[in-house]
Amino acid sequence: MITLGKGKKSVLYIGAHHGMEWITTALLLKFANEYCELFEVNGHISHTSISYLNSTRSIMIIPMLNPDGVEYQINGVKKSNPLYERLIKMNGSEDFSHWQANGRGVDLNHNYDAGFYEYLQNEETQKISNGASTKWCGISPESEPESGLLANFSRFNDDIEMFISFHSQGEEIYYGNNFDPPKENIRIGKMLEKLSGYKLKETEGSASSGGFTDWIVKELKKPAYTVECGKGENPLPLSNLFEIYFKLRRMLFEAPMII
Ligand SMILES: [Zn+2]
Fold it and tell me: Which listed residue, of 39, 91, 198, 237, carries a Cα 20 to 30 Å from 98's Cα?
């Protein structure tokens, strides 16, 4: 985790819950880089002075929650991997280009305790209960080291006042509407919409079941958002990074000032 700034009020940005969505890691690192460059020269982003932002807010960044999944998606699984046989079985082939889960075949963004058990009991979920490239929620909430650590870190840090989890793709923002979000969730969401040009939307069906954003809203009653970066087919090519960053830049810098 990278922490920028020394303010008490904090926000947490999380990238790459999913293997195919590593462009969100590049996005967050590019942001951290520009933040440091601007801090050194006493710079501004629209009306926000970076030195003021730095002294009054902390921006915590977990750039890649799921490094195993990203590694498999990009480079495939080598025969020398001790989990090779098991991974091939879960994936169904040697082509890992659509791998989203972690190294144990659990989709981390279905592994939190928000609609988890309903999702687990779905017929479709039960079909993939030996692990899969995507959508398998695991046998219990927070069963995975990645999701367990993130959940505990969120739970026990009272200073974190807002959470943004970055995914791709769709140029949309979701706000945990299934779990009776606090009113300020929509108000802040509308501001994020203005800052990014992305559309604030409601989730339908099981897409967000067991998701991190829903869990924060349900359990911690704090503003939390899923930001679907960019547009196209996953994995978005790295050549899309500049355009994605350009659209989200103001939101990344100014969202902490909303809280
Ligand atoms: Zn995702």
Answer: 198
Q: What's the 17 CA to ligand 1 centre distance in angstroms? A: 6
Number of separate domains in the chain: 1
Burial 4-18 (b: 16+ CB within 10 A, else e): bbebeebbbbbbbbb
Distance between Cα 228 and ligand 1 center (Å): 8
CATH at 58: 3.40.630.10
User: The domain containing residue 188 runs over which residues?
Assistant: 2-258
| CA 87 to ligand 1 centroid distance, Å | 20
244 touches 184 (CB < 8 A)? no
Ligand 1 center–CA 22 separation, angstroms: 10
How many H helices and E strands in the chain? 10, 9
| Successive 10-residue mean pLDDT values, the chain, 259 residues | 98 98 98 98 93 98 98 97 96 97 98 96 94 97 98 98 98 94 93 98 85 97 97 98 98 96
The model carries a pTM of 0.97
